[in-house]
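During the no-cost extension, the postdoctoral fellow (Dr. R.K.) reprocessed legacy sequence entries with the updated structure-token encoder. One reprocessed record is reproduced below for audit purposes.
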Amino acid sequence: MNTYLEIIRPHNGLMAALAVLVAGFILTGSFSPQMFYGALVVFFVASVGFILNDYFDYEIDKINEPKRPLPSGRMKKNTAIAYSIALTIPALAIAQQYLNIYCVGIAVLNIFLEFIYAWKLKRVALVGNLIVSWLVASTFVFGGLIFVVPLAAEMDIIWILAALSFLSNLGREIYGDVEDFVGDKTVGAKTLPVILGKKKSSAFASLTIIAAVLLSALPYYLGIFGIKYLCIVALADLMFLYSLTRDPRGTQKWTRIAMFVALVAFVAGSL
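Re-encoded structure tokens follow.
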């Protein structure tokens, strides 16, 4: 893969962009140019985050991820910073020109959080995990705010979807820290597994995923979505629960798949 593509993790950026389209479709029942502008902004913002993450993780990636562009020497650190700036400028310009103040605000906030997370907070127990979970969940909020204000009744389903995403990703992030336990402990990172141990951290991560499963039924019981939604989201819930039986890497994989199925459920419910 091209180094400039590899460092931005395009598959993750595309998932973030898809979240914007899903949220917009749930609210409007169609696709519009604004939604695609929003998806592009979110893709750029997510890409900036991954570049900053690799820039500040240079030393630890020599242990955990030596094949990534920076530790492998395939991209220089100064080039990475220039690349992140080159993506930030059009992201904010598009949000300002084609979207609204809420979207600009989220884009600015998220870029700031990405920077402070990668620089200082990534390995602060739980704080870093919470930031990443917000960054993921906020893609749905961003998509909704293209069309309505934050407290509008139409946003209720988007806030539920964002909360489901937040909880499932929080669990996935903590399991990721469990997987990186050796490298993090070597460099003195104060992640949750380093402080509490892998067993307690895994238990906490499992609770957040179970909370996501319980929350997923809420749109049905509130009468927002019907039985079609419930049947599909039940499949996602089974995947979430199955993920808890896997090792940390397997859990991360299955929660990602489960979240995608949950997205399908929300789209189906809105039809």
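Residues 151-271 form a domain with the Four Helix Bundle (Hemerythrin (Met), subunit A) fold (CATH 1.20.120). The first helix runs from residue 3 to 6. The remaining legacy entries will be reprocessed before the final report is submitted.
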